[in-house]
Amino acid sequence: MRTIVAGNWKMNTDASSATALVDALVGKMGGQPGNVEVVIAPPFPFITQAVERAKGSGIIVAAQDCHQAEKGAFTGEVSATMLKSLGVGACIVGHSERRQYFGESDALIGEKVAALLAADIIPIFCCGERKEERESGRHFDVVTEQLKGALGKFTNAQLERIVIAYEPVWAIGTGLTASAQQAQDMHAHIRSLLHTHGASVAGAVPILYGGSCNPSNAEELFSQPDVNGGLIGGASLVAEQFMDLLRIAGKVKH
Ligand code: 13P
User: Fold this and answer.
1) Domain boundaries, the chain
2) pTM
3) Cβ 231 under 6 angstroms from ligand 1
């Protein structure tokens, strides 16, 4: 199974600090464990410079969202084919902040996944329950619905090209993380859903954990058998912390 550590910069950095962060990461990439795929998702305006500066480093540059259509009259939007033409290798879709603030539905997110697969970009599909959903014991059902609603129509060959990120909403940016056991239980649940499509799908799709993951809690989280790496917010904005997370993933998954 692949191990992936991905940084979601969200709406942070500016032209100069984004460049500085890419340069700092590229400068530290030498000697990193080769068994970890490294992804960074800067804001749209800084993607071109990130792709240029990360060239040859092994870092995959991702976007944080895309539009579901290939082109057309959608003012302000960015298509998967545009991202592909820049050299973008992956794209986050269905992040809880998109669901919460921009009203994205599972059906819409599924269309975005389809657009990304058609453009040969790896979709990083996010799912996760809200605090009240966990407190009422509905977290497994909520995640099941998100996966079925967005990914239910894809073929096995398409599913095998997707990465899933489990991000409990109550853990995002709050300093609260899921316990290693809570993460493992949900990841195993997601793996069992994938298994209904066959062993090759279950064996191909990495499941990343996201939500206040940082160098002090990553070892325990990444050690869980169904946790295949992390989708990192705040700690991905500090080069040293992000590199520590790569080292930890490389160590526990080697
Ligand atoms: P934090 O690591 O800042 O909690 O964010 C997680 C996240 O939302 C990554 O997509």
Assistant:
1) 3-253
2) 0.97
3) yes
